[in-house]
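Person: Please work through this fold.
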Amino acid sequence: MITLHALKYSRATRVLWLLADLGKPCNRVDYDRTDAFRAPKELAGVHPLGKSPVLEDGEEVIAESATILRYLVAKYGDDSHTPPRGTAAYWQHEAMFDYVEASLAEVALPVILPAFRGDTPPDDALATLNTHLDYVSQSIGAGPLLFGKTAMLADIQLSYIVALLARFDLLKGHPKIAAYWQALKQQPGYVAATQAAGPMVPPA
């Protein structure tokens, strides 16, 4: 059985969501955050960077949630979490899947981190984030999710950043993303993951 090293309130929920969708169990090793909301030193014994999530599958040790999600769909032969290969939608999906951590997280964190400390985010950071949220709103299209009613890998990947933005009331002016977040929370895999391991982000 695979082992998932899961830090509380982290991207590890993405992996648990996909595993729930696939109906695959895992040996979950949970880690509490420190008082400074950091990963505990024990995670450095799992991965040199002290990261979470980390997946162990035999001799394979895989970090980065995007890589883990791709690994799992390949391992279990799943094709239900991407649009059909060779279609325009497939490549739109792949672009959005990589966009989440390559671009969106980079502009979201300078707003989320001050909000987490109770400070007002810088105006320039808010303006940049809002440009990206306009792009995400356009990408949702007819909704309720990115590619219709069923969560794809890109939806699962996007959920953590959207959850943080919602937690700190940073979706004002972006009702389409707020509705998208409500739709994500109704997905069976999200419900199962959060019931098993607790909320995706710290409660208000």
